[in-house]
Amino acid sequence: MKKRLVLAAFLITITGLGAQPSQAARDSINRLTAADHEQMKSQLGIAIPNRPGPSGNPQGENAANRDESKVNKYILPDPLKMNNGDRVVTEKDWWEKRRPEIVEYFDREIYGRLPAGIPAVKWEVVSARDTLIGAHPIREKILRGVVDNATYPEITVEIELLVATPAGAKNAVPVVMEFGFIRSPWGNNAVTPIGLGSSTEPTWKEQLISRGWGYAVIVPSSIQADNGAGLRQGIIGLVNKGQPRKPDDWGSLRAWAWGASRAIDYFETDANVDAKRIAIEGLSRYGKATVVAMAYEPRFSLAFIGSSGAGGTKILRRVFGEQVENLASTGEYHWFCGNFIKYASTLTPDDLPVDAHELVALCAPRPVFISSGSPQVEGQWVDAKGMFLSGVHAGPVYRLLGKNDLGVTDFPILGTPLVGGEIAFRQHAGGHSTGPNWSTWIAWACRYWGDCKYN
């Protein structure tokens, strides 16, 4: 019991819920993470070291490829070719045959399965107030989603959620929910660094409220820690009663997406929120969580996927920027199921049964917007073209379901908005942020939600 309490304290410091972590805390987290990574490899029967991933430092000795002329040749799995070799030619075949095959591959080999019997979540309002965002009056609520831990009381999970809607709205309004951070009354002193507006635009929250929409922020670290040491805590640890994962058990990305689904459960009870018009947004690792949430949760109406890179919307087989070897290392393997480690050791990315374009295809026919920053400011680690290509290769599924694809196959000039279809893409001129794309995303979203104020 004492060891678990010490671990919980370390996890709190490292996930932004408390003071800056000490070196001793970081060292302990790293040791626990390395041990968990090794025990998973032991379960998989892998005795050889993982292949090292490339460096994110362009001047590093093993720098990641940033030269388009050096990109490898690869063959992508066909999202419309079933395991028995038959082509998908009808919508019924997609929904009843091919889509379940793709979901099974992602469950088993990449993101992990949701376990049976995940405990229920009870939402409680912690605080409510009338306040302003910019010059706009809002109703703001902070909630706590308490997960029933009766089966294992040693682990407590309380999901943190902020919801704000325009104070003048008489009817339920659409809401955009971000994976991020909030200033919480129960000890989270972090502020939201994700999705800030550009210097010439109002913040994303002001833009949404002025449109007559609401916003929400859900805190991923309140669902599951962002490190391997935390896999025996959080919702994953609670379900496993503090024991290690099995190779196809869910990782943090799937757990964060599960938490986002529980927020929708709450929205369906809130008279101020139109639960039929909920969008999900996130940047970087939370961009990865965004596309995973959209793929697995049909109640999300729209997605805004920011610089998600490898493990998100980047083609994994494409040797440019971050690679599978980075994702399967001790720094990032906890985002995925244990089986994913195989593809950086005994197998290669070419052996993956699915790739990122099929994750985007699982979102069909609902609209998705893929966002990235410029190579000069954001850098090329996230591989903007690789993310664009996942949208291109998801197009056949959208077309099968009667929707429009990106409309082009050539990578666009910086700043070009490709917003004519249900798959959209724009590479803005800024850095690692969704900020400069918010106004473009909102204008695109109006096609589906209406250009409205309190409609």
The tally of strands reads 9
Give the strand content. 15-25%
Mean pLDDT: 93
Question: What sequence of helices (H) and strands (E) makes up the elements?
Answer: HHHEEEEHEHHEHEHHEHEH
Contiguous low-pLDDT stretches (5 residues minimum) are 1-18, 184-197
- Kindly report the spatial arrangement of strands forming the biggest sheet: 1-2-3-5-4-6-7-8-9
What structural class results from the helix and strand content? alpha/beta
Number of helices: 11
Distance between the termini: 53 Å
**Tell me, what's the shape?**
globular
The largest sheet is: 9 strands, mixed
Helix content: 25-40%
How big is the Rg? 21 Å
List keywords for this structure.
single chain; about 450 residues; alpha/beta; nine-stranded mixed beta sheet; 9 strands; about 30% helix; about 15% strand; disordered N terminus
Describe the structure.
The protein contains 11 helices and 9 strands. It is of the alpha/beta class. The chain has a 9-stranded mixed β-sheet, sandwiched between helices. The chain is globular and about 60 Å long.
